[in-house]
Specification:
The complex is a heterodimer. By secondary structure, chain A is of the alpha+beta class. Chain A has helices at about 10-20, 30-40, 45-60, 85-110; strands spanning about 25, 65-70, 75-80. By secondary structure, chain B is α+β, with helices and mostly antiparallel strands. Among the domains of chain B are: about 1-70, no CATH class; about 145-320, no CATH class; about 535-730, no CATH class. Helices cover about 55% and strands about 15% of the residues of chain B. Chain B has 29 helices and 25 strands. In chain B, strands 13, 14, 15, 16, 17, 18, 19, 20, 23, 24 and 25 form an eleven-stranded mixed beta sheet that branches. In chain B, strands 4-5-10-7-9-8 form a six-stranded mixed barrel. A two-stranded antiparallel sheet of chain B has the order 21-22. Chain B is elongated and about 140 Å long. At the A-B interface, helix 3 and strand 3 of A face helix 1, helix 2, helix 3 and helix 4 of B.
């Protein structure tokens, strides 16, 4: 595990976490696995970055946390997007697409 | 936003619950990962191991999460402060030294600044104080001066009538009188003020009115305005006081007004009566103080132009009698006028308080530096474990700040006590303000200097900590490099040099005081007792009544058993004397006019004081009201007017014959600016020949003295003197009986205060510097115990080892002494105006300063060095 580590672009971690949580509430490990899944294994987020980000976003009110029983009946802390978290996700997606468009134009220009 | 505030409070207040939740979350994550890995077929222990590796360590993740939490900064601060408190408690000796040093330094600064605050920064307690002024006279050319002008009746009338930009008023000084209302009698301060005086100050009586212009005319009605306090004491503050009669100076005055509670005036009196100024009598001399208020719409330039135009005849006549001089009157803010004379002293004190603060900072920097170096291994360990430089620095700053806060808080308490002590030193009504509070401005000042101190003494250790060499510090060796000793020695040089300046300044003031106290008095003060009595009473305007009182009371006093002689005089040696013009009437000096001190005396005055008679005779009972008018003059008079030739037989003031010459005595300077005590030309006249006009005037300002001479202490003399006075007039209040030494001390009160205050500062500076030297040497001994042990094992003697250590402290101190002496040579020149009979470069003072400093240095260096004698080489070597 952890052999393919790509450094995340600053600011992209938030977007990935929001995206990962947009389908259903997940616990920390679940978020990590979901990010690996949706990036097709390209990104593996270290827990040392993931947990601080989750807590920071929770303090900002983008996420809400609840303790639930997990799939195998262990208690785990599940994070869920709040309405302001959803708004944030939309804004981040829009900014990202904008950035990609600009970067692509720049890179492909002669 | 609300959510974030909730989070912040939860993070700070429910720390344990937050931490517990984080721990739970991470533990559950580890379990989730472990299960995941067990599904892949790993054993439980292997799966758990891999899970922990993937997570990257529970504690590390926790620290990362904590770092992003809200309130992290406050959290760190609290932790630093808690750590600082623990550190400081462990080193209680260091902590107490630092706090006491700070408390003394900040206390001294707080106290002195409170005085500066009222003298220079606070505005006067009147409405629109910026529109209040007084008038200064600047002389240039052949005579140079610049000071507040007192004015006479002529100038007053010109000012009142021809300067429309200003509302002006004059006052004639404040004197103590007995106030009688019905059966109640109270000793009060009576301020004699002109009409509009309260208008200028912006004070409106709460009951009644101010003095009218009619009441302020010469021989106008006798009316009075009471302060709120006196009115309440006498009448219980009812409105029925208006029009009631009170007795002042034995005459009835009608109350026309009562001032509001808390209202003060520059003269801070209890009762006010109309000055009724004119060009005659009191108004014939410059006896009035002016205050002015700028009318709305007018400017000070305009007012000055009007004053200069109105007083043109005045300045012309002044320039005529002082050829080559040029005079100009101009307005000055009242606040400056009221406090001008005290400013140099106050500033000098503030400067010395600043010195104390610097000395304290230098000491504390030295102490904390040593402490940082002693903690080098600890710091190095923390650095090696991953603490950042900033975290270490933050720790030292937290400790400095905490110490400064504790010292500052204690310092404000000390300052409050010091201020109370300082104010109790000052004579009553000495400061031109009612109170000296520790107001917000003073507290802000104290807080600022506390902060400044913590920066000044915290900077050095923080810098030193940032330069620590990790490897050598970890090894616990090389604790204090040569550099830090050099630095500390430099600090000692600085503080000792400042202490030397203060010591030298104090020394000069003490020498001045000794000079003034040991001036040849010109009479024999031993065994002379004085009772001062106010004759400011209309009955004693009659020369016959006055003569009778003096005769009868002096005779009664002479009959007291144990009394050798008794007399009455206005005034005594050491006192300020009435001065008047005298005209020489014969010989080549005929027509010459000048000022002289005038003293009236009863026969027996010269015998009672045992003043040597140099020529001719002194007065006898034969020099009565109808006899030939006679005078006795002193040496200074003969020297000034007759070139030192025998004055006996000469005439002055047309018909007055000089019959004798006596020695000079020390008096408070009145004619000349100079030392507080000096000899001035004086003419003595018999009390029996004093005229009516004189009597009605002089006792408003001056109280005559009854003096007796005794061979030794006399039981109950004070009461006997009171009885003797009462036998002549039962209604005469006396000041109580005191000795000539008390009179001298009262004259030199200002000099004593200066010596006491600067002395306290210098003592404090010396104490702090000595502590600094002591700490340096004691510390060197502690650091070098091993080295000394080795040296002694190799054959060095105890005294050699001691000498080596002592040298480092003594050398710095002596260098400081030299620097300080050089500084004094320049700095103390500003003190010249405060010195009498001693030069700024005074040998004995310098010798005393050197002696004191050498003693202090010896004590501070040898005491800690004595510990070297107890070093056991075998023991220290085993410690290796």
């Amino acid at each position: 595990m952890g052999e393919k580590r790509t450094d995340l672009l600053r600011g992209t971690l938030d977007l990935l976490i929001l995206k990962a949580l947009s389908l259903e509430p997940l616990h920390g490990v679940g978020v990590s696995r979901r990010i690996t899944q949706i990036t097709k294994g390209a990104f593996q987020v270290s827990f040392g970055s993931l947990f601080p980000s989750l807590h920071r976003m929770e303090e900002k009110g983008w996420l809400e946390a609840e303790w639930h029983a997990s799939e195998n009946n262990r208690r785990a802390k599940y994070y869920r997007l709040t309405s302001s978290g959803r708004a944030r996700l939309k804004a981040e997606e829009r900014d990202w697409k904008e950035l990609v468009k600009i970067m692509r134009a720049a890179v492909e220009s002669a | 936003m609300a959510g974030r505030i909730v989070s912040l409070f939860r993070n700070l207040l429910r720390k344990r619950a937050v931490e517990q939740a984080l721990d739970d979350e991470l533990q559950s994550s580890v379990e989730l990962l472990t299960q995941e890995k067990m599904k892949e077929g790993l054993s439980h222990s292997e799966a758990r191991r891999q899970a922990l590796i993937e997570l990257g360590g529970i504690e590390q993740v926790k620290e990362e999460v904590r770092n992003v939490r809200l309130g992290r900064f406050l959290d760190n601060l609290a932790r630093d402060l808690r750590f600082a408190v623990r550190q400081l408690r462990r080193n209680s000796g260091f902590t107490v030294t630092v706090i006491v040093t700070l408390a003394l330094a900040i206390g001294a600064n707080t106290a002195i600044f409170s005085v500066i605050n009222v003298l220079m920064l606070k505005s006067l307690p009147y409405a629109h104080p910026e529109r209040l002024g007084t008038i200064y006279l600047r002389a240039t050319g052949s005579s140079v001066s610049n000071e507040r002008a007192a004015i006479d009746g002529w100038r007053w009338e010109l000012l009142r009538d021809n300067v429309p930009s200003l509302i002006s008023a004059v006052s004639g000084g404040t004197s103590g009188v007995n106030l009688q209302a019905g059966s109640r009698v109270q000793y009060v301060r009576d301020g004699r003020v002109s009409a509009r005086y309260f208008d200028v100050l912006g004070i409106q009586p709460i009951i009644g009115r101010s003095f009218s212009v009619d009441e302020d005319r010469p021989h106008g009605p006798k009316v009075a305005i009471l302060s709120y306090g006196v009115c309440r004491n006498l009448f219980g503050s009812d409105a029925g006081v208006l029009g009631r009669a009170i007795l002042l100076r034995g005459e009835p005055y009608a109350v026309v007004g009562v001032l509001p509670q808390g209202a003060t005036t520059p003269g801070s009196s209890d009762v006010y009566t109309p000055l009724q100024p004119s060009r005659a009598g009191e108004g014939g001399g410059t006896n009035f103080d002016v205050i002015t208020r700028l009318n709305s719409g007018a400017s000070w330039e305009q007012a000055n132009a009007e004053i200069q135009r109105a007083w043109e005849p005045v300045t012309q006549s002044m320039e005529k009698s002082n050829p080559g001089a040029h005079f100009m009157y101009y307005s000055v803010p009242l606040h400056k006028g009221e406090t001008d004379t005290l400013r140099p002293q106050a500033l000098a004190l503030m400067l010395s308080a600043g010195f104390i603060l610097l000395i304290a900072c230098a000491n504390l920097a030295g102490l904390t530096l040593v402490r940082v170096l002693r903690r080098a291994p600890e710091v190095a360990t923390r650095l090696a474990l991953g603490a950042s430089g900033w975290q270490i620095q933050r720790q030292f700053w937290a400790e400095s700040l905490l110490l400064a806060l504790a010292g500052g808080a204690t310092g404000i308490g000390v300052g409050f006590l010091a201020l109370r002590g300082l104010l109790s030193l000052l004579p009553e009504h000495f400061l031109p303000v009612a109170s000296v509070p520790l107001d917000p401005r003073v507290l802000v000042f104290s807080a600022l200097i506390t902060l400044l101190t913590s920066v000044l003494f915290g900077m050095l250790p923080a810098l030193a900590a940032s330069k620590l060499d990790l490897r050598s510090s970890m090894a616990g060796r090389a604790v204090a490099g040569l550099g830090s000793v050099r630095l500390r020695q430099a600090l000692i040089v600085g503080e000792v040099s400042l202490a030397v300046v203060l010591l030298a300044g104090t020394g000069l003031l003490i020498r001045s005081l000794i000079h003034l106290e040991t001036l040849a008095p010109g009479f024999n003060p031993d065994g002379v007792l004085v009772a001062k009595v106010s004759l400011d009473d209309v009955r004693y305007h009659d020369p016959a009544v006055f003569r009778k009182l003096l005769d009868e009371s002096a005779t009664a006093m002479r009959r007291i058993p144990g009394v050798e002689d008794a007399a009455v005089g206005l005034s005594l040696p050491y006192e300020r004397t009435l001065n008047d013009q005298v005209m020489l009437s014969d010989g080549k000096e005929a027509g010459l006019q000048d000022n002289t001190d005038v003293v009236y005396v009863t026969p027996g005055y010269f015998e009672t004081l045992q003043m040597p008679v140099l020529a001719g005779r002194v007065f006898s009972d034969a020099d009565g009201a109808t006899a030939q008018r006679v005078a006795v003059v002193n040496q200074a008079f003969a020297r000034k007017f007759y070139g030192g030739t025998n004055p006996v037989g000469r005439y002055i003031n047309q018909d007055t014959l000089i019959v004798g010459e006596v020695t000079d005595v020390s008096v408070s300077s009145g004619l000349y600016e100079g030392a507080p005590l000096m000899s001035e030309q004086t003419m003595y006249i018999p009390a029996a020949q004093v005229g009516t006009g004189y009597l009605s005037l002089v006792h408003v300002w001056f109280q005559p003295d009854w003096i007796v001479r005794t061979a030794g202490p006399v039981e109950g003399l004070s009461a006997a003197m009171q009885r003797a006075l009462a036998s002549a007039d039962p209604n005469l209040p006396s000041s109580g009986v005191y000795g000539m030494k008390d009179l001298q001390a009262r004259t030199l009160a200002m000099q004593r205060i200066e010596v006491a205050l600067l002395g306290a500062m210098a003592g404090l500076a010396l104490l702090l510097s000595t502590v600094g030297i002591f700490a340096l040497v004691a510390n060197l001994v502690a650091q070098r115990t091993r080295e000394i042990g080795i040296r002694m094992a190799l054959g060095s003697t105890v005294s050699q080892a001691m000498l080596q250590i002592v040298r480092s402290g003594a050398g710095a101190s002596l260098l400081g002494l030299l620097v300080g002496l050089a500084l004094s040579a320049g700095a103390l020149r500003v003190m010249r105006s405060l010195l009498y009979g001693v030069d700024v470069y005074d040998g004995p003072t310098l010798a005393a300063v050197v002696f004191i400093l050498v003693c202090a240095t010896l004590a501070a260096t040898t005491l800690p060095a004595l510990k070297i004698a107890s070093i056991d080489p075998a023991h220290t070597l085993r410690e290796e």
